Structure formats: C-alpha cells, structure tokens
Amino acid sequence: MKNLLLMRHATAAEKETGQQDADRELTLFGERQAGEMGIKLKSLGLVPELVLCSPAVRTRATVENLMAEVGRNLPLQLEQVIYHGSETEICVLSQMFLMR
Rounded to an integer, what distance in angstroms lies between the CA atom of residue 72 and that of residue 47? Predict the structure, then answer.
C-alpha cells in the first residue's frame, strides 16, 4: 500500500518590501526544522519515493535540507498547482501519483 505524506514548508523569512511571496527563503531555524524532519522520516522508515513540491524557494529549500539528512537525493517534481491550488486540485494531483 502506498502512503501519502503532506508536509508544509519549514519556517520562512518574512516577506521583504517588493519581494514576491514565492521568493521567500527559510530562516536558519527553518533549515534546522527541515533537517530534523528528514532525520525523523528516516527513523520512521518513511523516506518518500517521490516528492511533489511547489516551486517556491522556501519549499524547495525545505526539501533540500530534508534530503541532506535522509542521506540521499529523492526524485523531485515541481508542481505549480501546489502553490496556489485548491484542496480539490491538490487531491486530484495526489491521486494521479498514488494510482501509478
């Protein structure tokens, strides 16, 4: 049976004047949070086969820090719908990959 793990990005910096929301980076604390989540997932045997990720800077950085602690690169697919998508759109996207 396949499992679906939904995860929010780690703590991000406040939006700076004139900065696009998608360009916000992780704080140092957020980088540590993401790494700790990688350690936790690995200890639970929940290392993903595939990561679907929003193209936002903070979400990609969360995945990068997580992968560093998991100890391997994970297949990563950027999906714009995750950034602004509705619950329905994200559920449909998730179902497409769970059915594979």
Answer: 10
